[in-house]
Amino acid sequence: MRKFEIDAAQVVGLFMESIFYGIFLVTFLECLRVLFIMDGRLKPAGRIHFTMVFAALAMFLFASLDVAFHLRHNLDVFIYSGGNAIQEFSKTSSWINVMSMGCYVAQTFIGDSILVLDYWGRNWYVVLAPGALWLAGTACGVLTVYTEASLQHDGSLLNANKIVPFITSMLSFTLVTNLLTTSLMVYRIQKIRQRLKHRSDSTTYAPLTNVMRLLIESGLLYTSTIVILFILYMMSNNGQYGVSNAVVQIIGITFNLIITRVDRGEATQPASQNLQCTGATVALQTITVQTTVLSRSAELEVPKASNSTWEMSKRNQNGRVRRKPIK
């Protein structure tokens, strides 16, 4: 069987990234709509979550730059250089390779920072362990970029002996951070569901089930890609270039999907809006991924998945549940 050479891997990687970049653009535009528009009108400045806006724009910037760098690299090698394609792609310290790695590290930094700080920012003792892993992974990423920029052209590219420890550490920290943070959130929500389940006068816990499903689905999309990338990298398989290109886009896609799905109520809206318990109607004050779930006898807090959350207010006179977006 013919070996999958690096020149073919780079072309396939550009193709894969272009597909995911198209998906990213669609979700990015929808995310901007959610962040800036409410009920067909532009949100007032006080209701715009500028941290999320900055994160979305930064992800768009690095996702676009990564595609541009890889396109430029392919054009240089196949059109302008006139040299051997495999040798050209194997130049580890090429400025395009260094900048592409920088885009990957920056995108991972933003994605993990949202996962760690925005979900758990109000509980510093909970964020301590995931935060340490996040910072360690970022440090390994910065060292990877620096080491790659200073390497000689040894033809090993990302599998050069000096880079391998930093890349494996960065991937390991990223993987553990995602698994740990997602597991902690799901565990906490599950505990709250169990407490609500045994209260005959409490609110429905169906929204919490939907929140938990959203977190698991989003975590699996990102984490499974990191696992595949890690395996290919340890095998020194050139397929790693296509997957690593796709990861830059998948991080942004995951962020955008969480924002838009919560805005549509898929994550927090109960499966049934007939919220009655033991013959009495129960007021569902607030159900979000991070704000509060209120019952007649208890107030419980659920960690935040994003800022575009829904507040379920008391029933109106027609018996319907009104919902209105909150900051």
From TrEMBL:
Q: Which UniProt keywords apply?
A: Membrane, Transmembrane, Transmembrane helix
- Which segments carry the region annotation Disordered? 305-327
Q: Where is the composition biased (Polar residues)?
A: 305-319
Q: Which residues cross the membrane?
A: 19-38, 50-71, 95-117, 124-146, 166-187, 214-235, 241-259
Q: Source organism's superkingdom?
A: Eukaryota
User: Protein name, please?
Assistant: Uncharacterized protein
The species this protein was found in: Leucocoprinus leucothites
Q: Give the lineage.
A: Eukaryota, Fungi, Dikarya, Basidiomycota, Agaricomycotina
